[in-house]
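I wish you would study the pair of lines that follows with an eye to the fold:

===
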Amino acid sequence: MPVAVGTRGGSPYVALGDSYASGAGLAGVKDAKCDRTSGSYPSLIAKFRSVTGARHAFRDVTCSGATTSDFWNSRGGTPPQIDALTPDTRLVTLTLGGNDVGFSSVLATCARLASSDREGSPCERYFTADGKDVLEERVATMEGRVHDVLADIGRRSPHAKVIVVGYPALFPDDGVACPEVPFAKGDFTYLRDTTKKANRALERQAAAAGAGTPFADTYTPTIGHDMCRPRDERWIESLTPAPNTMAAHPNTIGQSVMAASTLWQIYKPFHKP
């Protein structure tokens, strides 16, 4: 059965990460402060493992807004996520790094700048104004921090199978704009490419950590179900209406797809951590 975050003792499955792992905005709130819900992909994985007989403890310390810094440090009374790891931990899932790049503030900036040039790429110009791509530099910095996070996970939980879980396709993979999302036409490609760069960085660090740390690709299976798609085809929620805590985040189906992609890595080849 799942255990509360404050439960003492080892937890065979520990979920680490940000709002994409916490299931932000979905029903079944488990922790309002962290916008942690029962519809998150870690919660779905824990339920699947329970049904299949892996009745192990589940400790979910994912938190909306978390950065790599929150892995090591307390924020607003929330303990460092690393504290959930023990030598008994056997499975760890990690989705972290997007907030290091500043995706939420980037999207807000892009929406604000769009009114100045609807047909162009005002957001890309803003983040590359000095001849260097600020977001690309942030991704590089994030990659180094994720490297350190994975190293510390290995030290704290040396027997754990660690899955690095990537980010889904938030924007159309073909780069074509849509009127429902308030960005300039040219910035869709820039934002798509930045998402891909972040995922490639996470995948590289999973590979660098060793064969026992696979990367769960959640981008590829969500292509064609981004925030521009009609509501019945959308697995990533749009930015409107606002305020909306699910904006640019996976809905119920999106989280289920993330869970499926992660489970594939857990049991491929078939192996119970």
